[in-house]
């Protein structure tokens, strides 16, 4: 036989548990009282009866018999009274315990309902929350204890989920916006030059160049988006890595490109800077910094790659002698798809990069528990410093202030 739905609820089980415990405690108390009274009073029925003759005395002193009466001793009468008292006590106690059990069911139902009211509020709010709308919160204010802690924990989890979904939607919107432009460029040149029989050979060659550049830009954008999602995943296995090795490998990748643009790569590396991290991700972070430095540094200047340790914190820096970054833009330079204002000299090659490089650098460094620092002035170049915490550092420790590359030099 299938039980009713309400009998499977926590409220019903708490009611039954509360009533059962109260019934057992009350029954045990009455049983102890009954046994104690029974042991101390020695209740027994009357077993011996005596015949007593009743007489009536006349005025002249004569006694006239009027009948007989059965009597018992005083002790047996007291025992008989105790026995009847215990019988009455037993009967009334049984009725009282039965009534108490029924009454406790009602009291237990009401009390368990009041105790579980915050839980119903939590469940009701959770049912109304959808993946597309995480703005609702439970916010238990008049309750203390474990349910309040549970509600606060769920609210905190919803805050993190809301931030994650908002960042995901923002990333998708930004990526869609960024991909729309090169796709429109490709479609326009396909229709105007490559598909048109009236287009000249020069126009066709120009269209091929523009389409190739737009395709490369989309490829870099997709690679950057994949790198962002890959570092956010939990499947990466961090191992011991050497910052100096990573810096040298990343610099070697850009050595040929730097030479083609008339730049010098200058190394100031310190050995044995070992930390726990993802080798490929850290190499990509350094590569993004070198890509910007090589792209923006003027011909004949130097790009410096340095590493060291300051205050126990390992660091890695990339410095260039490019146009620099304005103070107002430094707070937003690590935002996704941000490329600076129209009056910033560093934006003259906006179609050559996606605006995700520095955002990926910050994400990679912060996922390793580190910080990214920027030291730059317009016309004086830029220095990006990646700080990584020591293995015995606390969560609230901060790296040293200042540009370590200047001190290292």
SSE layout and pairing:
Elements: H1 10-41, E1 50-57, E2 63-71, H2 74-115, H3 117-128, H4 146-194, H5 201-232, E3 239-242, H6 243-253, H7 255-260, E4 264-268, E5 274-277, H8 279-296, E6 302-310, E7 313-320, H9 327-330, H10 357-367, E8 371-376, E9 382-387, H11 404-408
Care to give the gist of this entry?
The protein has 409 residues and is of the alpha+beta class. The protein is built from eleven helices and nine strands. It has three domains: 111 residues, no CATH class; 105 residues, Helix Hairpins, CATH 1.10.287.130; 172 residues, 2-Layer Sandwich (Heat Shock Protein 90).
Structure characteristics:
single chain, alpha+beta, Helix Hairpins, Heat Shock Protein 90, 3 domains, five-stranded mixed sheet, elongated
Give a written overview of the molecule.
- Helices cover 54% and strands 14% of the residues.
- The protein is an alpha+beta fold and 409 residues long.
- The protein has three domains: 111 residues, no CATH class; 105 residues, Helix Hairpins (Orthogonal Bundle); 172 residues, Heat Shock Protein 90 (2-Layer Sandwich).
- A five-stranded mixed β-sheet has the order 4-6-7-9-8. A two-stranded antiparallel sheet has the order 1-2. The protein has a two-stranded antiparallel sheet with strand order 3-5.
- α8 packs antiparallel against α10.
Spatial gap, N to C terminus: 84 Å
Secondary-structure element series: HEEHHHHEHHEEHEEHHEEH
Count, helices: 11
- Shape, per Cα inertia axes: elongated
Which regions contain 5 or more consecutive residues with pLDDT less than 50? 341-352
CATH 4th-level superfamily of the largest domain: Histidine kinase-like ATPase, C-terminal domain
Q: What is CATH's topology name of the largest domain?
A: Heat Shock Protein 90
Our estimate of the beta-strand percent is 5-15%
So what's the CATH class of the largest domain?
Alpha Beta
CATH architecture of the largest domain: 2-Layer Sandwich
Approximately how much helix is present in the residues?
A: 40-55%
Within the largest sheet, what's the order of strands? 4-6-7-9-8
């Amino acid at each position: 036989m299938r039980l009713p739905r309400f009998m499977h609820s926590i409220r019903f089980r708490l009611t039954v548990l509360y009533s059962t415990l109260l019934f057992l405690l009350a029954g045990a108390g009455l049983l102890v009282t009954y046994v104690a009274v029974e042991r101390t009073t020695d209740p027994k029925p009357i077993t011996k009866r005596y015949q007593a003759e009743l007489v009536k005395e006349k005025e002249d002193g004569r006694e006239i018999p009027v009948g007989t009466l059965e009597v018992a001793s005083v002790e047996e009468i007291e025992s008989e009274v105790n026995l009847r008292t215990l019988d009455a006590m037993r009967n009334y106690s049984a009725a009282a315990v039965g009534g108490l059990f029924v009454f406790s069911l009602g009291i237990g139902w009401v009390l368990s309902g009041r105790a579980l009211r915050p839980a119903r509020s939590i469940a009701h709010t959770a049912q109304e929350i959808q993946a597309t709308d995480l703005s609702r919160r439970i916010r238990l204010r008049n309750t203390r204890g474990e349910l309040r802690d549970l509600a606060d924990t769920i609210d905190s989890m919803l805050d993190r989920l809301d931030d994650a979904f908002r960042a995901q939607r923002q990333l998708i919107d930004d990526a869609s916006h960024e991909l729309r432009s090169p796709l429109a460029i490709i479609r326009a040149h396909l229709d105007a030059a490559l598909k048109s029989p009236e287009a000249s050979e020069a126009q066709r060659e120009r269209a091929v160049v523009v389409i190739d550049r737009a395709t490369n830009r989309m490829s870099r954008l997709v690679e950057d988006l994949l790198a962002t999602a890959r570092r956010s995943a939990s499947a990466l296995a961090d191992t011991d890595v050497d910052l100096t090795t990573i810096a040298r490998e990343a610099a070697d990748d850009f050595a040929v490109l730097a030479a083609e643009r008339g730049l010098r790569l200058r190394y100031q590396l310190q050995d044995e800077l070992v930390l726990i991290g993802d080798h490929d991700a850290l190499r990509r972070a350094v590569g993004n910094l070198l890509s910007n430095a090589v792209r923006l540094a003027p011909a004949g200047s130097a790009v410096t790659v340095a590493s060291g340790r300051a205050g126990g914190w390992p660091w890695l820096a990339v410095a260039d002698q490019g146009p620099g970054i304005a103070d107002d833009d430094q707070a937003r330079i690590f935002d996704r798809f941000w490329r600076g204002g129209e009056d910033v000299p560093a934006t003259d090659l906006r179609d050559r990069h996606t605006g995700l490089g520095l955002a990926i650098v910050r994400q990679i460094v912060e996922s390793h528990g580190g910080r990214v620092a920027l030291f730059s002035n317009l016309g004086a170049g830029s220095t990006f410093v990646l700080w990584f915490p020591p293995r015995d550092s606390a969560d609230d420790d901060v790296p040293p202030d200042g540009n370590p590359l200047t001190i290292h030099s």
